[in-house]
Structure formats: C-alpha cells, structure tokens
Specification:
Rossmann fold, 5-stranded parallel beta sheet, 2 domains, 6-stranded mixed beta sheet, about 375 residues, alpha/beta
Amino acid sequence: MTSSLQGPVHKAYLDLVARGALTSDPAQLEATAYFDRVLHDLIATKPKSFLGLRSRHKSVRGLYLVGEVGRGKTMLMDLFFAALPTRHKRRVHFHEFMDEVHAGISAFRKVVRGKNEDADPVEAVTKPILKSGLRVLCLDEFHVHDITNAMLLDRLFEKLFAGGVTLIATSNVVPDQLYKDGLNRQLFLPFIARLKEETEVVELLSSQDYRRLKFAGQQVYAFGADTRATMDKLWLRITGGEPGRPAVVESIGRQIPVPLQSMGAARFNFSDLCEKPLGTRDFVRIAHHFDSLVIDGIPQMDRTKSDAAKRFILLIDSLYDRGVKLAASFEVPLEQLGRDDKTAFEFQRTISRLNEMQSEEYLAKGLRDAVPAEEGA
C-alpha cells in the first residue's frame, strides 16, 4: 500500500517529524496508510441510531502489525488510537487483557449459573464487552506461549469479531509463528486462520532500533541534590522533545496516576510509586505500559522508610524482568541507598540489578515477554 491515503494517522506522524520528536522513517510512514485505511473503514461503518435504538455496527477488518523490537509499532498504534473518533475503544497489553479474561471466567464459574453443565464462560466474559459497545480493541505485544490462552483464543475472538469488534494488534511474531511448537498446536491453527481473515497482516520493515538509539551512550543515573536539569535533558531525549501529559494506568479496577507520559515513556517521582499503596501487580502493569521510566528523587531508605524500600524492591524487580529502560536520580550513591536492616538482604539484589540496568548491554536489549505476576506486597 502506498501512502496516498493521507489520513489522521499519517498527518499526526508527519507532525511529530516536523516537531523533531521523530526522524522520518519510510517503513513507519508506509505503515500509517494501513492504520488510516482501518480508520476510514470504521468511520464509514459508524453505527446508526433508529428511533432511539443504537444498531450494532458492522465488523471492520483490523490490522496486525509485526516487526522487530524498537521499530515503532506501539508508537504507531498509539497515534491510531488517539485519532479514533469514538469513546468505544480500548488499548491494553495482550497479557493484561487475557489476564482479565481468565479472571472473568474464574468468577463466572463460582456463581450458580456458571456451575451448570451447559454454561458458557466465554459467552459470559464477552457479553459485557460487547454490551459496552466496544468498537476497537488495540492489543499491544500479541504473543502466545501459554496453552491456556492458546486453547481459548479462537472461541473468544470468534465472539468478539461476530459482535463487530475490530482488532488492532502489534507483535514481534507473524501469525503463522504464534504458539510455535506449543502443546496441541493443531488445535490452535483455526485461530491463526481466523486472525489472518479478520486482520490485515503488515510487516514493519524498519532497519533502526529506535528504542536502543534513545539510550545509546547516555548516563542514565544522576546522583546528588541538584539533578533536575540532568533528568529534564534526558527526558527530552527519550521523548524526542515532546513534553508529555498526565495519564493513568488501569490496574485491577483502579487507576494509577502517571504525572507525565510521552512517546512510550513515563516520568514519576519516587513518592508517586513507593509511598503509595501499590504492589507487584501495579508495577507489572506499569512495566507493560511503558518501555522507559524516569524516576526523580530516589532517597536513601533507612528504617523509617521500610515500606517504601519494599515497594522499591518490587518495582525494580518488575522493571528488570520486563527489560524496561530506567533513568533515575538518586540522593546518594547506589551502595548507600539501602540502610534498613529489614530489607538489607533483598536490597543487595536490587543494587545488583540497578547496576546492570545502567549497562550498555542492558540498554541495548529489547523488552522481555514477562507475564504479569501475582499480587505482591
């Protein structure tokens, strides 16, 4: 497809290039046309109202964007999501979405109706989704490695597609390679066929890993009292000069405030994350929403900050397991950071990970496919 269809996504991309937030990439520019095609089709099939009743919309063929890490897939999907002129849309990480589906199935099976032999837990989970009027579901990092998900996906998306939901997905894996060598993979093949029918598979053939480029040669940690200017400069580099805006991350039915987010990165103060009632599940959610984090004002953690120290340990574990890039300012050197006997042993691993996370080797690697963990402290 050529870029002749210069719609809202194409224009938003060129605007970022004009502002210096992005370097124009032919592969990314080409991909905007596919997103604009979906956007055009969605607008053309907008649901109509008749006598006060809203008709069910038609299904529109979606998009499955595949490419290597750091090529800008998530950024392009975010531009598309922002351009969608509807509130009936949702953007979520694939594993988070499936986690919610499994939780819904588990809850249904505990009620009386869910214990009947003819009960359909997939119907029970999809019915409220469709009833909400969801039009577009954007799933980031579509990757299937779990047999439970593999056996569920075909029936789940059969109902979602039949209900008119359009899927937009990003992935590092082409559909034919999903769940490769998985147990009972032949039972998964109908879903691959359905996915290829309901979405247009597009490869993003960019040669540059932009995520890696942002951190190449950078000193990502700053120490001492006067570090704000250093972090501001690094934030502008990570975000391409885009200042950012407040946002929220959804976690188990509640919202975690994000002071600033921009271009796949988020910026927090230490107190925003470690002096609030957050746990492992929340930190995993954050790690799946952003590829880079900037944390300001990490203090020395003595006995008066035991709870904050425990949360900081969980936070770093979550970021490290996911491969999230970290830029941070510390009031004291790393070896002086933990001064609490209650967390001394765990803090040794945290310091080791912090040291590794500033290395060129760590910064050069892509995100890892870490599955959400159970709720922690």
